[in-house]
Amino acid sequence: MDLPFEPYRIKVVERIQRVSRAERARRLEAAGYNVFKIPSDAIYVDLLTDSGTSAMSDQQWAAMMTGDEAYAFSRSFADFERSIRDIFSYRHVIPTHQGRAAESLLFAAAVAPGQVVPNNIHFDTTRANVEHRGGIALDCVCDEGLDPENEGPFKGDMSLDKLAEAFEKYGKERIPLVMLTITNNSGGGQPVSMANARAVSEFCRDMGVPLIFDACRFAENAWFIQQREEGFADTTVKEISREMFSLGDGCTMSAKKDALVNIGGFLCLNDDDLALEVTNDLILHEGFPTYGGMAGRDLAAVAQGLKEVMDEEYLAYRIGQVRRLGERLESLGVPCLKPIGGHAVYINASRVLPHIPQSEFPAQVFTAAIYLEGGVRGVEIGSLMFEHADPDTGEMVYPAMELVRLAIPRRVYTHTQLDYVADVCARVAELGPRLSGLEITWQPPSLRHFTAKLQPVGGGDLLAPESAQ
Ligand SMILES: *Cc1c(COP(=O)(O)O)cnc(C)c1O
Question: Where in the sequence is the domain holding 287, given as residue range(s)?
Answer without folding.
Answer: 58-308
